[in-house]
Request: fold
Amino acid sequence: MHLSNITQKAGLAALFLGAMAVPSFAEDAKDVAQGTQFVYVFNTLLFLIGGFLVMWMAAGFAMLEAGMVRSKNVSMQCTKNIALFSIGGIMYWAVGYNIMYEGVDGGYIGTVLPKAISGLVAEQNAVADAIAAGTDPTLYSGASDWFFQMVFCATAASIVSGTLAERIKIWPFLIFVVVLTGFIYPIQGAWKWGAGWLDGMGFLDFAGSTLVHSTGGWAALVGAIILGARIGKYGPDGQVNAIPGSNMPLATLGTFILWLGWFGFNGASQLAAGTIQDVTSVANIFMNTNLAAAGGVVVAIILAQLMYGKIDVTMALNGALAGLVSITAEPLTPSPLMAIIIGGVGGAIVVICIPLLDKLKIDDVVGAIPVHLIAGIWGTMAVPLTNSDGNFMIQLIGIGSIGAFVMISSTIVWLLLKYTIGLRPTAEQENAGLDIAEIGVEAYPEFGPR
Amino acid sequence: MRVFCNLCERSLFFAKLLLFNTKGFDMKLITAIIKPFKLDAVREALTEAGLYGMTVTEVKGYGRQKGHTEIYRGAEYAVNFLPKLKIEIAVAADQTEATVAAVVDAAKTGQIGDGKIFVSAVEKTVRIRTGETDAEAL
Reply:
């Protein structure tokens, strides 16, 4: 999401169209030329359509997680997902958006203020004034941009929810979400998308392989280490016990919903749809995004067949998501074949890293760490392969600095929570299931005698 | 009036219990553990043999077939208990052999894990609705 790029492009278009406008319009400074209005409308529509597609990814995460946990923890997982989406939405209004975008100016953090809604007249005047002054106008509604950026922020929080499933109390998790969506995510986001220091350096992350997915992944990783594994996941002599999920159709539906949402995630990150060039880019991004997901699935199922003798459906689902995360850092410049390869490597990452994490006794219930963190790093490092503006060293600096910041800040918050209100339910509560212990509503109450 | 009716009904019920209680009537409970997909075949075979009633329970267990291993997300796990169906049929003792034969015939695949049949004695049978017992209740 190159905000500086878009204003440049939009500005050029506006100046061009402004010059063609009828002179009588130009005399009135507050009148905005037809062409400029057209660009404004289509940019805003792209944000809104992309935004509600990404909003729907919250449903995808909820269903994926509901299917991947045991039936005694399904209500808990649903509650966590709708609560985190709401908390993220409020925090991103209260402080997040302006920390990320307002006055970062090549630095590390923006302004700690709520995001205001500017009125119609104010937005129109701002555009007209900018054109009159010969500077680049912002050709989209402020609220549409807030909405589009807010749903990205919520996505980062959803990633954490899946990894820590089945063994964390709800309130410490939600308090972590407050800090993640209000501060941790927006601060590192400001470094790149808010035109901060990483952006100035030339770090590239089109739709957030690092900014969104790895950020959620790092927070999930340190959370999983501090929280510990589920009871019974790892045996005393190093054996790994499988804890199969309760509902594969739900997990599959969730994955398809996420796949659909990704067209908004990557496509609308073009941030502009007012020119032939921009909408063509959006369409190319759709194509590459779909190819990468497909590549991820095909590689994951072939590898699973070769390594385990059977195709594990959850590996196929994770393969799709890893393919999508891998293409997110640069969905525009790869050729279609390259998109399949980038996504396919993501699929391989999943099949190889899931057992590896188990060897390290890091219990990741839904596979969010391989899918979002490791595939996110791969996707970010793959940018210079197809984009000549990319540089491997600068990509590494971006991944490393954001990783370090998110890990350190998350560790502090997790430890504070652990030693104050505590993170884990009692063993008895965990064995009984968090639906009963924390929510009081079972997901499937009619199965079996009561 | 209602109390009186209740009393009447109850005395009738107990009278029937006494009246129909034919001591010494031999009954057997046939408990069969079968492969789940064989249920329809077994039910049809029993209907043909003139038996109109059974109870089915989903159960899990193991015998000679033992379990098997599966893989979930790269971790092998043992499935020790395999899903089976338990059907229970109460019959007059003289129907036992025909019933067992019908179940064996219908449930057999020849593969390991076809299940087992247990025959045990039944002391008494009561039909809850009418209070009939034993021969009349079967």
About this structure: Strands of chain B lie at 27-34, 55-61, 68-72, 75-79, 82-92, 115-122. The longest helix of chain B spans residues 2-20. The two ends of chain B are 34 Å apart (CA to CA).
